[in-house]
Amino acid sequence: MRRSDVVSVSFAPAKYQSDVEAVTSTMPDVSVKQLNPLDFSGRPILGIYSKHFRQQAIIEKALKARGVPVYEAREYVKLTKDGSFDRRLVYKKRIRRKLTDYVKNVPPQVRAAKLADEINQKGWSAYEVPKWGVDQLRDDD
Predict the structure, then answer these.
(1) pTM (2 decimals)?
(2) How far apart (Å, rounded) are the C-alpha atoms in residues 8 and 100?
(3) CA-CA distance, 87 to 127, in Å (whole number)?
(4) I want to staple 112 with a disulfide (CB 3.0 to 4.6 A). Which of 23, 45, 97, 136 is the partner?
(5) Is the distance from CB of 50 to CB of 30 less than 8 angstroms?
(6) pLDDT at position 76 over 70
(7) Which structural domain, as residue segments, surrounds residue 42?
């Protein structure tokens, strides 16, 4: 039994939109959408959706032959779990109370702000959560 609601998806940089549309224009049940989220390098991306996994493989092969980089969601998940994007995954949170008011329950953004400086009593905290724990965002990267 085949489920009609299951969709295969892959991603390509938006600057290759004309190549993607040229490859997918004649294929049934394929749609290309510009996605609002950006890739980890800050560039816009396209979502290439197809109802059949085999069709997705044909699309990827044709696009790679044209020099278009194509990524599957599982590749991004694997790279994220491996720590390849640790420096690009940044959380920015508002600290509403003074740092000294956090005694019993100290959230990660407060730990990062305390690491940054003891003078910052109220404001914003940008921090990373790499494998080894919370870390204050540094400007040198």
Answers:
(1) 0.56
(2) 49
(3) 10
(4) 136
(5) yes
(6) yes
(7) 8-82
